[in-house]
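Handoff note, outgoing to incoming analyst
You'll be picking up this chain. Sequence as last confirmed:
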Amino acid sequence: MFSGSSLSDAAVLSKEDFKLYGYVDTSYTQNFNNPKNSGANANHLRIFDGDSNSFRPNMAQLVFEKEGTNGTNAVERAGFRVKLDVGEDAQFTGGRTGDDVDFQELYAQYVAPIGNGLDIRIGRMNTLVGYEVIESPFNPNFSRSWLFGLGQPFTTTGIRLTYPVNEMLLVSIGAINSFTGLTADNNSAKSVEGLISFKPTDKLGFNLYGIFGRESSNTASGAGKRVLVGSYVTFQATDQLGFVVEGYYANQENGSAISSGRNARWNGVAGYAIYDFDDQWGLRVRGEIFEDAGGDVSCLGTAGSGGNANVCTVSAPIAQTLWETTVTLQYKPTPSLITRLEFRYDKSNRNVFLDGSNNSVNNQQTLAAEAIFLF
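Most recent structure output, in case you need it:
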């Protein structure tokens, strides 16, 4: 039971201290290769847009939170977040497949009265790593990059400390259960996750991130040292035009799926140009190259594996280099409604995409339409 003092402190809170918000995201994707997989037609090597020639109920997300602040008392300093995902994307938001319901974030927060306020969070949170995120409204494009979808964790579970050194510099570090991507925690070791964010001006931002720890490979048995280090730079050239460049390098000890006992390496670079004609119309362009030298993070499922977003036509892991170009036209008829029309061209140096029923090719082209309602 609560003590009398706890109930008294809780009574200080009002409904304005709590927030309830979210969005609904739906889409349709046409794959011009018309892949006819056994069991499920899939856009190969895609995440969150894996259904070919099909409508997709991507996500209904609901967030309930009270944000802790560097306030004058414990009530103001304490906070929490509960973020619930429902829809086909929820199969992958937590690193587990097969369930259309997932608590993407679930954590308790306390801002300790140290200097500018030390933000402490314990639970499950969006990762510190990468420019793109799970939530589609916060990304410039509808489809996700391979940097995000193949080589980075989406969420992590553990404890995180964040300290705003000043208005320009913020530092975060966390101890987490695992590097989760499309697989759940597969070992008992803990990893370290970190981010340094530096914004010297309103127009320019630098972000350096990394993860280090003992992790199990996706394709090889046993755990070894895994490291991922990268950064992204944002530059707002004008009020209408912005640019982002992201790149990272990752290595998994004894993780190569194509050469036993060798390390697995994956790395990539992506560039974004984001232009707003006005408050309603915008154009976003992304170009990317991604290398999976050890065959450990791409082609983890075959064409007929259905629920696995990381499918391709080969039955065994292979090393490959991937390229993609994405052009997205965005229209917001109202501030609460985002619509997108997107063309994407994917290419590999290996025949990992499906053309028709049984032709393996090195490319695929898709045209997608997306609608997001914010509330």
